[in-house]
Design goal:
4-stranded mixed beta sheet, alpha+beta, UDP-n-acetylglucosamine1-carboxyvinyl-transferase, Chain, single chain, 23 strands, 2 domains
Length: 430
């Protein structure tokens, strides 16, 4: 295959080459959660001592987080899926601009740095281009706790002129990142902090569980009201990261779109309560045994009447792109409404190149299922859009080349190898 495709011209040389049409079958062990590991690793800077984080996935976003920790003065060590972080002698308060721009989630360090160093200097974070995703709510929460923030030319200089005082923080939207930052800083603030309209995601619960092991006093995690009784200091602890519900969903979608039979071990099935019924709506048979989910797909998927992304426990925005690929080859017309991010249909033009029939207007996508997708050279626009294109390649007639793997590598550990274990024909080209 000639490598003169669109992504090469854009400077993204690495690609996944997929020969479609193979039915997936077999079992996998679910990876550790990216969206859980990142705030927990930020929290290891807040605590004083050594923390051992089990089931920590090997992802580019995690590697960026490790670089930030080391830049702040922490010592880190990898042992397989374990990551050891020693923050005993750490004292940094600034994150270099290049690391902030590499990963939007780096903003979760704000609360941790302020809680330990009492000052912070960061730039506006980068990451996937799926909308503006402003950090206004993060800054609002920090200011409520007593932080003074100066904003100038994309730089944030944060200081704490007086003691941090617990307070009531009412979020206008249940932002995951703002909730995480508020929890981190409130954990070492004087008095009691109440977060109203807090995010309820399992990753929030996982972070709070880790902090409580370190000596924090947090209650209500997983509910819309979280109460934090501040403590003077936190110590290191040992914790195992929960499974990645979005990665798990992606592999189930892969099984579904190929008419396959796929099992996932080491999952938390209740974390997928909004996803599994949608798969059943398409005609898939779902069975659950302890921590294992098994999916048996029909020969032809049925349409999804109307799917709306919502904050947890609703259908996750991170699963919107890959499930759209399923609807692209399902019988009938499906409707998807994206309620979280305003620019999360960037994968649509690439799916259209593969023969999909999709119309978008604002936050609404109408998908008319087609009998077949066709292989093409496509570019991954973001993390979840990239996974959607890989799924399209699995079911497409012919060869598909998915470029800009830097996005996919942010959230999926050994993606192509895992798919190969399930009988996919897919290789990485550097």
């Amino acid at each position: 295959m000639k490598h003169n495709s669109t992504f090469e011209r854009c400077g993204f040389m690495a690609s996944l080459v997929i020969n479609g049409g193979r039915r997936l079958n077999g079992s996998l062990v679910a990876q550790g959660s990216k969206n859980s590991a990142l705030p927990i690793l930020a929290a290891t800077y807040l605590v004083n001592g050594k923390s051992i984080i089990h089931n920590c996935p090997r992802l580019s976003d995690v590697e960026c987080t490790i670089k930030i920790l080391e830049n702040l003065g922490c010592k880190t060590e990898r042992r397989g899926t374990d990551l050891i972080v020693d923050s005993t002698s750490a004292s940094g308060f600034e994150i270099p601009e290049n690391l902030m721009r590499e990963m939007r989630s780096s903003v979760v360090f704000l609360g941790a740095i302020l809680g330990r160093a009492k000052k912070a200097k960061i730039s506006t974070p980068g990451g996937c281009e799926i909308g503006l995703r402003p950090i206004d709510l993060h800054l609002f929460a920090m200011r409520k706790l007593g932080v003074e923030i100066e904003e100038s030319h994309g730089q944030l200089l944060c200081t704490i002129p007086k003691k941090l005082k617990g307070t009531k923080i009412t979020l206008t939207f249940p932002s995951v990142g703002a909730t995480e930052n508020a929890v981190l800083l409130a954990s070492v603030s004087e008095g009691t902090t109440t977060i109203i309209n807090a995010a309820r995601e399992p990753e929030i619960v996982d972070l709070c569980n880790f902090l409580n092991k370190c000596g924090a006093k947090i209650s209500g995690a997983g509910e819309s009201i979280i109460v934090i009784d501040g403590v003077k200091k936190l110590g290191g602890s040992e914790h195992s990261v929960i499974c990645d519900r979005i990665a798990a969903a992606t592999y189930l979608f892969a099984g579904a779109i190929t008419g396959g039979d796929v099992s996932l071990k080491n999952t938390v099935p209740q974390h997928l309560n909004s996803i599994l019924p949608v798969l059943e709506e398409t005609g898939c048979e779902i069975s659950i045994k302890c921590n294992e989910i098994r999916l048996k797909a029909p020969l032809k998927l049925r349409r999804i009447d109307k799917l709306i992304t919502q904050p947890y426990p609703g259908f996750p925005t991170d699963a919107q792109a890959p499930i759209m690929t399923l609807t692209a080859v399902a019988e009938g017309t499906s409707v998807i409404v994206e309620n979280i991010f305003e620019s999360r249909f960037k994968h649509v033009p690439e799916l259209l190149r593969m023969g999909a029939k999709i119309r978008t207007e604002g936050r609404v996508a109408v998908i008319d299922g087609v009998k077949r997708l066709y292989g093409a050279s496509v570019v991954s626009p973001d993390l979840r859009g990239g996974s959607a294109l890989v799924l399209a390649g699995l079911v497409a007639h012919g060869t598909t080349e998915v470029g800009s793997l830097k996005h996919i590598d942010r959230g999926y550990e050994n993606f192509e190898n895992n798919l190969c274990m399930l009988n996919a024909d897919i290789i990485r080209m550097e």
